[in-house]
Each structure stands twice: as structure tokens, then as C-alpha cells.
Specification:
By secondary structure, the chain is an alpha/beta fold. The chain folds into two domains: about 60 residues; about 190 residues, UDP-n-acetylglucosamine1-carboxyvinyl-transferase, Chain, CATH 3.65.10. The protein contains nine helices and 15 strands. The protein is globular. The N and C termini lie far apart (about 45 Å). The model has no long low-confidence stretch (mean pLDDT about 95).
């Protein structure tokens, strides 16, 4: 238990297998490997996001990726000028809102389009969303571009275990979009949602249910039936920034106001969200 004391010493390379997909743990091991004697390898059972590998490669680090194993060798990095793209996990809330609102038209410029992060686009497209990508460039090893969303009537879809690593952070807002879609959306293989900042599965069922969205809890996911007439209510964020963001987007579809308790947690991942939302909807 924290607090912790760490005493530095000479490191040696290791071979590590990730028990669950985690870009954070993978990144920590690879970054330590830059200062470890020999080679350090991380084996993934299911792929996690690869921003760190792309960044290290663009900075001159010797990176090898083969059959789900990423290997780095002790080395020094080269300085580069990097333009950081917009975070697609933040843009996802506006993308889902625009996609589910017929007649809307939203353009988001210079968004990161790393294939390990674009599951939100694939899922929305599977629901019938009209999404186009333009001005695609490669910067610092990352694919970036403009995302253009035109709203239409969505339909239900299936999100299975294989897709979860690419959309795990976007499940809350996808559940909101599913509440506006025709038919049933089923999400499975998402057990890790129960150990995020909140138990997001139970929290989504409880709070979206208060708004009149037909949503059912599954052991490893959710089932959402739509479309629903969303009514205002007082809802709880559970101190979870993505829950609060999703509930704010749900408020766009509500016939009466939605009040979110503990919404200040939004600033954890998206400071300025309220200003951006106000700019988009006016």
C-alpha cells in the first residue's frame, strides 16, 4: 500500500507477459527497458494501445514488434519536434453525440487516429454513422487527421471481447448513443469496466436508467435497447470522469435538464469540456 519508497539500482532486461491488456503497464516496462542491460520484451495476449512504441521508434530507439511481442534495447533517444494530436478518447464524446443526432454536422481537426484507438469510429460506423476522415498525415509515428461526423438515425450493434481493448474508455458514451439507436446493442467481454474509477457497468445501468434509457446489466457488459425518450433527472458521476462526460452527452438528448452530481471530476481528463460543449451546441 502507498506510500512507496523506490531505491534506484542497475536494471537488467526481462521478458514480461501482460496478464490483461494494459498500455500503461506495457509502457512502464518498455521505458524502464531503455535503462536496463540487454533486451526487455513485453508479450501481449491481446493488443493494447501502442503510443509508447511509436514514440520511442520515432525518437530513434531500437524497437522490435513481432507476434504480439515488443522488444526494446538499452539506448539513448534523439530529440525531435512533435506536434501532439487531439485525443480521440476526448473527441469520442462529441463524435457519438453528433453521430446520434440527425441533422448535425461536426468537424474535429487534427485528431489522433492511431488504429489502436479508432474503435469508436468503427463501432459508430457499424451503427450506421456517417463518419469521414480527411487530411491524414503521419507525425511522430502517429496517424492524425480531421474527423467529420454527420448525424443520422443509428441502429443497434454488437461489441464483443475482441473490440473491447480499442473502445474500453468509450463504452460509457457508446451506451448513450445506443440509447438513441434503433434496436438492441450488446456489449460483452468488458469485465474490466467493473474496476475502473467506478464499476462502470453498474453505474451506467443505474444512472442511464434514471434518464429513461432501457439498459440491462450483463455479467461482462451491457444490453441497451432503443430508441428511448430521455428525461432529465439528477444523476451521480461516482467521481468518474468518463461517467460524468457520458452523462453530460446524454443531457443533449433529454427533454428536461440533467443535473450531474460531482461533475468537477471531468477536469481530470478534459479540462474545458463545458466550454467546448457550449461552443458546439450553440
Amino acid at each position: 500500500m502507498a506510500p512507496l519508497v523506490i531505491q534506484g539500482q542497475n536494471l537488467k532486461g526481462i521478458d514480461y507477459t501482460l496478464p490483461v491488456p494494459s498500455a500503461q503497464v506495457k509502457s512502464a516496462v518498455l521505458l524502464a527497458g531503455l535503462y536496463a542491460a540487454g533486451k526487455t520484451s513485453v508479450q501481449e495476449i491481446m493488443p493494447a494501445r501502442n503510443h509508447t512504441e511509436l514514440m520511442l521508434e520515432s525518437l530513434g530507439a531500437p524497437i522490435e514488434v513481432e507476434d504480439g511481442k515488443t522488444t526494446v534495447t538499452c539506448s539513448e533517444l534523439e530529440a525531435r519536434e512533435i506536434r501532439v494530436p487531439g485525443d480521440i478518447s476526448s473527441a469520442a464524446f462529441f463524435m457519438a453525440a453528433a453521430a446520434a443526432l440527425p441533422g448535425s454536422h461536426l468537424v474535429m481537426e487534427h485528431v489522433g487516429l492511431n488504429p489502436s484507438r479508432t474503435g469508436i469510429i468503427d463501432v459508430l460506423r457499424s451503427m450506421g454513422a456517417h463518419i469521414e476522415l480527411e487530411n491524414i498525415v503521419l507525425q511522430g509515428g502517429e496517424v492524425c487527421g480531421d474527423v467529420i461526423v454527420r448525424g443520422t438515425r443509428l441502429h443497434g450493434t454488437t461489441i464483443n471481447k475482441e473490440m473491447i481493448p480499442r473502445v474500453v474508455d468509450e463504452i460509457p458514451v457508446l451506451a448513450v448513443a445506443a440509447g438513441q439507436a434503433e434496436g438492441i446493442t450488446t456489449i460483452s467481454g468488458a469485465e474490466e469496466l467493473r474496476v475502473k474509477e467506478s464499476d462502470r457497468i453498474r453505474a451506467l445501468v443505474t444512472e442511464l436508467g434514471k434518464l429513461g434509457i432501457c439498459i440491462r446489466e450483463l455479467p461482462d457488459g451491457l444490453e441497451v435497447k432503443g430508441p428511448n425518450k430521455v428525461m432529465g433527472a439528477e444523476v451521480e458521476s461516482y467521481g468518474d470522469h468518463r461517467m460524468a462526460l457520458a452523462l453530460a452527452i446524454a443531457g443533449l438528448f433529454a427533454h428536461t435538464p440533467v443535473k450531474i452530481r460531482g461533475s468537477s471530476c471531468i477536469s481530470i481528463s478534459f479540462p474545458g469540456f463545458e466550454r467546448a460543449l457550449q461552443k458546439i451546441v450553440t
